[in-house]
Write a structure and sequence with these properties.
about 70 residues, mainly beta, ATP Synthase, domain 1, five-stranded mixed sheet, four-stranded antiparallel sheet
Length: about 70
């Protein structure tokens, strides 16, 4: 899937990944290729995607058409 991790100042990371780990408000969430569309609130924690790891304070993530967009505050 295509993954974009964004913050107000710009792009943190963009690339392809088969799995992304998110710190969802209800607990850790694993997103795989072709996941059903969703919208989720993120809490403080770590995002892992395509060999990249980044810490966030909070954010939102949404999946549509095998594209995951993550908007965060770091």
């Amino acid at each position: 899937m295509k993954v974009s991790i964004l913050e107000p100042r710009g792009i943190i990371w963009e690339g392809m990944s088969r799995q992304v780990i998110l710190p969802a408000a209800d607990g850790q969430m694993s997103v795989l290729d072709f996941h059903q569309p969703f919208f989720v609130r993120l809490k403080s924690g770590q995002i892992k995607a395509g060999g990249m790891e980044t810490n966030i304070k909070e954010g939102i993530a949404f999946m549509r058409a095998n594209e995951l967009k993550i908007v965060v505050e770091t």
